[in-house]
Amino acid sequence: MPPAKKRTRSYDSAKIRAAVSAQFGHVRDAVLALPPEALDGPTRLGEWTVRDLAGHIAWMVDSVPALLARPEPAKQGLALLDWPFATAPAAERIDEHTRGLDTADLGALYDRTREAYDAALADAADARLLPVSLGAMTLADFLVTRTVELVVHTDDLSAATGVGIPYDRQALAACTRLLADTLAVTAPGGAVEVRVPPFAVVQCVEGPRHTRGTPPNVVETDPLTWIRLATGRAEWAVELDAARVSASGERADLSGLLPLMG
Predict the structure, then answer these.
(1) What residues contact residue 246 under an 8 Å CB cut-off, 6+ apart?
(2) What is the DSSP letter of 130?
(3) Burial 148-181 (b: 16+ CB within 10 A, else e)
(4) In what order do the strands lie in the sheet containing 192-196?
(5) C-beta of residue 84 within 8 angstroms of C-beta of residue 262
(6) The domain boundary residue, chosen from 170, 198, 230
(7) Is pLDDT above 70 for 6?
(8) Which helix (H) or strand (E) holds 220?
(9) pLDDT at 211 exceeding the cut of 70
(10) Which DSSP letter does residue 2 get?
(11) What distance in Å separates the CA atoms of residue 123 and residue 109, rounded to the nearest whole number?
(12) What's the pTM?
């Protein structure tokens, strides 16, 4: 696991809490509007059906009240920028748990999840430590990771069903920024400037650091394309050819660094 740099980006806790709730609401509305036969359709996530994916999304949000209900760990074990690197070893366990979820009544599942989330957060402090299986995290940091789960899987759900699902602006911004910062940790340096307007700009890759004027190596793309690249949902060469990514400069090829997480 690459060591996480000292956290330099802050997130507005109230906005992140609301963003998780809002994005989950968008997913709920989309899922409950699907015809029953669509729930048995395939997704781009291996053998998961749309129903499996819908259940997984609910679990990702329900994990907040579930973890808050457990005893608080003695000390923090996982920083926010450690989280993207820690998820890969848990893939098998996540798949097994997702397949075991009771998704017979998705409406009831989503309503219970939303009610539990709202109730659990009413008096929960941002600094409260949660016993996450990957390592104890603060509630504030864990909620930022929920924006990544929600935004990435909203895109998966849209791809599987053809339904356009709205993105909460704060959720999309937090997901974009965390994955951009993950790139900066993965390839520290200042030779390449990566721009994902309007949410993030980071410098990465070893080499001469840019200080003024137009950077010699620039990568620019939109938030969803960046998120798909960072999570393995899109390929660098394909997005470059389609002009969804622009890359100028001899060091501006990020293909060897992507994806950052699956």
Answers:
(1) 218, 219, 220, 221
(2) E
(3) bbbbbbbbbbbebbeeeeebbebbbbbbbbbbbb
(4) 200-204, 192-196, 218-221, 245-248
(5) no
(6) 170
(7) no
(8) strand 218-221
(9) no
(10) P
(11) 23
(12) 0.94
- Residue 118 tokens, joined: 């709202």
Task: Note whether 111 and 202 are same-domain residues.
Answer: no
The DSSP line for 7-60 is P-----HHHHHHHHHHHHHHHHHHHHTS-GGGGGSB-SSTT-BHHHHHHHHHHH
Q: Are 30 and 157 in contact (CB under 8 A)?
A: yes
Nearest Cα to Cα of residue 149 among 47, 34, 48, 62? 62
Cβ burial of 113 (10 Å; 0-12, 13-18, 19+) is buried
Mean pLDDT of 230-244: 98
| Residue 210 and residue 193 in contact, taking contact as beta carbons nearer than 8 Å | yes
In angstroms, the CA 206 to CA 189 distance is 4
Tell me how far apart the alpha carbons of residues 95 and 111 are, in angstroms, rounded to a whole number.
23
Q: Domain containing 244: what range?
A: 187-257
CATH number at residue 158: 1.20.120.450
Task: Note whether 210 and 84 are same-domain residues.
Answer: no
CA–CA separation, 164 and 158 (whole Å): 6
pLDDT one-digit tens code per residue, 38-78: 999 999 999 999 999 999 999 999 999 999 999 999 999 99
150 and 199 belong to one structural domain? no
* 247 falls within a domain: yes
Q: Counting every residue, how long is the chain?
A: 262
Point out the domain boundary residue: 135, 170, 205: 170
Q: Which residues pair with 42 in a beta bridge?
A: 49
> Phi and psi for 68 in degrees, rounded to 5?
-65, -25
d(CA 223, CA 155): 12
Tokens of 67: 């973890």
